[in-house]
Amino acid sequence: MSTPAVLLLVLLINCVVTSAVLGSLWRADVPGVRRWLASQALLAMAVGAVLAAPSSPVAVSVAVVPYVCGTLAILQGFRQFFGVRPVYRAELAAAALLVVAVVWCAWAGALSNLRVVFISVMAVYVRVAIGWLAYRRRPAHRPPFAYGFVWVVAIAGAIVQFARGAAFALGHGDDATLLHPTTLNVAFVALAVLSLSCLSMSVVMLAHDRIAERLERLATVDGLTGALMRGAFLEQAEQRCRRAARAGAPQSLVIVDLDNFKSINDRHGHAAGDQALVHFAAVMAEGIRSRDLFGRLGGEEFAVLCPDTSADEAARAIDCLRASLAGGGAGPTGGVVGFTFSAGVAERVAGEPLSQLMARADAALYAAKAAGRDRVSVAAPAQRADVAA
């Protein structure tokens, strides 16, 4: 068996193994996985046809259809993964014309190098499109490694395919020697196999990243309100407090508690209580700034960490939301039971740990409750000075 044949056999095995891995993710409902799985099966069929009869026009005709479809399916899978429209009619029409042209070249017995050029042009287009998607659509909140790997592999594969197409267009290669162990042929087959294998690995990496993102969200985001869970909020708040301390920037913490929430559950049922929590969280998410940190401490108690904000500024902002919610101006309630909230605000002083900042904000909250609820209380400057000392 020639070296190119061995390399293609390795690619065939890689397609089978990747199909098994992607098949295990079928029920995970990761966007793009099913198209990627189909692409691996189609590419395996194409490689098998080439290995069976590399010089036969029938084999070429049989191989080109699954190869073109499989290559397009990879691109469509990436588009689906990144939330982009996967199928374009112009691409399908171009792919159909490509198949007809390659089959005609195979049966005509002339211009055999031209079919390599056609295939290479398509491969370059697909890889550049994949690289562009990975570069432009990478989620900012996700680790960059997997997406950077996709970009590098796609662009490197495009370069290889461009070089192969150019070499055959200039007459430096011979398509009739696909499995012959010439130096140029072995080099191009090896690079193409490596490129496709790495691309197969990259789709598994992206699927894994999407599943990891879901698990992280389940572990850090409250499923009912969309706010950060207590542990995630405290962890991120600690990090922000350290950054604020180094920068010497003001930072305030607001602790919010829904008034008489137990009576909502008792009088209207827990479903009404859940609706109230969801509505409150939606109002808060819309009213606070994007750089503010919003979390659910437990039950009906929430917290907002406001960077670059004094206690008075934070109190004014939260009081506007309180008045808006109490007056029904926060938007249609959709049948949500009316409710109010109280809030305590404390500004962090130099060297103050988060636990003590939370204790002061909590004390201010209880002062607001004791004063009649539906109000905002700010920790007095004297309290902040005592902590600093």
From TrEMBL:
EC code: 2.7.7.65
Keyword vocabulary terms for this entry: Membrane, Transmembrane, Transmembrane helix
Domain GGDEF span(s) in chain numbering: 249-381
GO terms under biological process: cell adhesion involved in single-species biofilm formation; negative regulation of bacterial-type flagellum-dependent cell motility
A Pfam match: GGDEF
Broad class of enzyme this protein falls into: transferase
Single Gene Ontology MF annotation: diguanylate cyclase activity
Record has Isomerase as a keyword: no
Transmembrane regions: 6-26, 33-52, 58-78, 90-110, 116-135, 147-166, 186-207
GO cellular component, one term: plasma membrane
PANTHER family: DIGUANYLATE CYCLASE DGCC-RELATED, REGULATORY COMPONENTS OF SENSORY TRANSDUCTION SYSTEM
Protein name: diguanylate cyclase
